[in-house]
Every structure is written in C-alpha cells, then in structure tokens.
Design a protein that fits this description.
With 126 residues, this protein is of the alpha+beta class. Helices cover 15% and strands 35% of the residues. The N and C termini lie close together (9 Å).
C-alpha cells in the first residue's frame, strides 16, 4: 500500500505524479473515507489547518505545509481548527469527480465515485 508524503517544518515536499490541476480552495472534504485508484492529489496549506484521516491515523497540516496522497491511499480531510485556505493539486479526472459530487445527492456518491476509478470505504475497508 502507498503511504502519504507530507512536509513539516524540517522537510520540503518532493512528490511526482502525472498531469495535474491546481486551485486555491477552502473547506473540508467528504464525510467518508475514500480512495482514488489511479489518481494522485496534494494540498499545500496557505492558512488554517486541515486534518487528514489516513489508515494509520490522522495528520494535521498547517500553513506552509504540504501533503501528497498517492493513488491507492485511503483518506479524507476536515477543518478541525477553523477556516482554511489552501492550494489543491489534482488530476483532471479528480477535478471532474469533485464537480459531479457537488451536483449529486449524498446517496448517489458511491455510484459517482465508481465512474471515476474511486471508491467510498466503509468501516473496516482499506
């Protein structure tokens, strides 16, 4: 299984993926743990702190820090300490997935994620 790569005050991020898109966003992710089977994504924090839930625990990522989630890594993220502002780096397929999820009711998210080579994980799934 792939592991997340994240920076801290002592290290700088160095992670290579395929083609990507980058946006300045705010807010948390979906309420469920999920995995993208073929797509990498990354966040670089500008303001606030996002907490990432990963299979081996949680990682708080604050201003100036970066986290890279390689394809195959279960994850979700949330604002545990107030509002955030960050750069998100993602593939075109993930960009399209997120746009479709925002237009879809929660009970359709499983079918939507499957169309984009992703999966919502239930308790006990990895």
């Amino acid at each position: 299984m792939s592991k997340a790569i994240y920076s801290n005050d002592e290290t700088k991020i160095h992670a290579v993926g395929d083609s990507f898109r980058i946006y300045e966003w705010s807010g948390g992710g979906p309420p469920y743990l999920h995995v993208h089977f073929e797509d990498d994504e990354a966040w670089h924090m500008l303001e606030g702190t996002l907490t990432f839930k990963l299979p081996d625990g949680e990682v708080a990522v604050g201003p100036g820090q970066t986290i890279f989630i390689p394809a195959g890594t279960p994850h979700t993220f949330y604002e545990a300490q107030g509002p955030t502002r960050y750069l998100i780096i993602l593939t075109p397929r993930l960009d399209e997935l997120i746009q479709e999820l925002h237009r879809s009711p929660l009970n359709e998210h499983g079918a939507v994620t499957a169309r984009y080579r992703s999966k919502i994980l239930m308790d006990g799934d990895t």
